[in-house]
Each structure stands twice: as C-alpha cells, then as structure tokens.
Amino acid sequence: MRSYGFGTFYPLWFDHYNLAAGVDSAGSTYFAYVAPLGSLIYSPATSLIEFADSQVAVKRALGLDTGIFKLMTDPDLTKFDPVVALLDADDATHREGARVAAANLRAGAVAIGVDTVRQGRFDPYFLFVQQGNVKFVGEFVATRQAFLFDNSVMSDLLTSAVPAGKYRADVLSAAAHLIGAYAAAIGVQIDTTTSATQFNLGLIGYLRTRLGELLEANTAEAAARALAVTAPQIIDQTAIFREALPLPTTGFFFPGPDFFVASAGAPLIITADGLDVSTLVSNDIYANGPTGSIGFFPASSSVLSVSVPSINSAELTAVLASGKVTVTALNGFKGYTYFDYAVRHPSGEEGAARVYVNFQ
After folding, report:
1. 344 in Cβ contact with 304 (< 8 Å)
2. At a CB cut-off of 8 Å and minimum separation 6, what does 159 contact?
3. What distance in Å separates the CA atoms of residue 179 and residue 114, rounded to the nearest whole number?
4. DSSP H helices in the chain
5. Which of 34, 147, 168, 329 could be cross-linked to 264 through a Cys-Cys bond (beta carbons 3.0 to 4.6 Å apart)?
6. 219, HSE (Cβ side, Cα atoms, 13 Å)
7. Would strands 268-271 and 324-329 be described as parallel, antiparallel, or unpaired?
8. pLDDT digits over 135-170, tens only?
C-alpha cells in the first residue's frame, strides 16, 4: 500500500483478496486496507474496488470519471502509485497523484460515516479492520452506480446501513451533508503532508465526532445544526490537526493520537493505561515479530508523563496522577487544543502521542 502519506506496511493474504496493514505517516494512525489479488497499491479506494468488484463503479462513486474531482488520465488505481506521482517533476503527473490522494481521503470519509451509523461506537484500533463496513459500501457502489457525494445518494447509503426507524430521516440526511461537506473540504488535490495529516486526523477528530453527536441527539434541532456546517468551517476547525507529532522512524512502537470531547466548565478525567477503548494507550500499537512481520497489536503500555506544549499553555492543563489524567480548560477556553504524553511499551520501547481535546 503506497497511497499518499502512508508508511510501512505488511501485506497478508486473506481468502480471495490481499490485506495490508501499517501506520500512516500522516498522523501515525493505524490502517488496514484490502485490494484485489495482483494489486500493487492498498488504499481506501482499492478496498472499495475489491468489494464492488468494479473499478469503473468506484471511480464513478468517487467522482473520478467526471466533474470537479475527475482524474486527468484513467489510471488503474490498483497499480497507480500516488506517492511516486507526487514526487514526479512533471506537473501533470504530480497533480494526478494529488487527485488520487484526495480521492482516498474522501473514500475514507464515506467509510467513517457508514461505520459510525452502523457501529455507534469508536474502537481506535479495530476501526479499519472491520472490513464489513467497507464491504457494505462497496456492494452499495456496485448496485447504485452513482456519485456518492450527492446528498440523496449518500442519504440512501446511510439509511440502508441501519435498521428502519433507528434514526430520523432528517438526521440521516444531515449526516450525509456532513460527509459531503467534509469531502468538499478535502478538495480536489492533496499534495502536502500537512494537508494529508489535517484531513486524515480530521476523519476521527472532527467527522466521526460530529456524526456521533448528531446521531446521539437524533433530533430536528441537531439535524439543522449539522446542515448549517460548511466546508470552509471544516477547513478552519480541522487546521489544529496539522500540528501532529511525526511518525517514529525507528523501532516497532507506534503510539497513536487520541481524541476527546469535554465540557469547558468541568475537568475531563481520562484513564491512562489499559486496553479499554477509552484509555490513552488502547491505540498505541506494536509491530510484533522479529521484523514486525506478524502484525500490529495493542498492549498494556504505561503512560510515563504528560505535558502541555507552550503554545497551548493558556488553554488547558493536564496532570497525571494515580493512573488518570485530569484535563482542565483554562479561562473558559473553548475549541480544539492538545497535550502530549510519553509512553513505554512492555518491550521497553518508548514513544510519545498527542491527545486532541475539543472543549465545548
């Protein structure tokens, strides 16, 4: 898998398709994507191709065959390497790589949306391993043969993903709008690591959070608020995710970023250690095996310390004590901010991760 921004991967063979798992250099998030046998690339787009059994249908669904997102050529997405293309001195080749990179992030937004309405909870490690959600989207794409980022089409996708009556129709339509607005915020091209990081981390830190709030409320008022969200607002609110820690370049330990929503008027208490999905270390993964070849797994890592970067010192405090981190907004601060923590894996390797908090 060499889609834009993604790092080391370890391909595995599964049944009738290949699966590649790794850690994304654009934000240090875990990924697991599939592709048809014979593929050279593993990405959100190739995962859809595998389950739609049609590259033509996937290109139509992502708008790569016509309209503003259209590719300039007609590359085989299972063979076309956006990373190589982005490094090419030829401007046209570079721009084609940037368009494919953006398409992969838009495909990720659809997968996040379906996962949210179907699962109702977020597991920071197993999200992209749950291929059933991607399979669901792929099969819808094959059947519908339409551009996904049309509100009626996206609404139909989300409606078909859940039992009848689980959510209000206007709420699902508003969820479709949020996904479409996020796709528009990503834009036509992604050609820098900072932009890739912004919208990759924003899939969880912004899109999944907003969808979760909307679905939990399940009211006309919540739907109206979601429908008022615009792409420029999303670009502004996800800019914080450009400030990410770099991917570790040595060792096998990859601490992952965390995302929390909290009240500006009360302390946020976070459990530091343990494998429950609400802990800081639940998505801090280790590449097992003599060369990391077996796979990536979480472990009972230990948080050593927490720190607030000086740029955020007027916005929040974070204190580690008795296995818990107490996070407090300062002076009524509202919005996104972050703190960092140092962590040790049972192997002895140490690392650091960033925790983004949205105070409301």
Report:
1. yes
2. 169, 172
3. 10
4. 44-52, 55-61, 82-87, 91-119, 131-144, 151-160, 169-186, 193-202, 209-217, 220-227, 231-237
5. 329
6. 6
7. antiparallel
8. 999 999 999 999 999 999 999 999 999 999 999 999
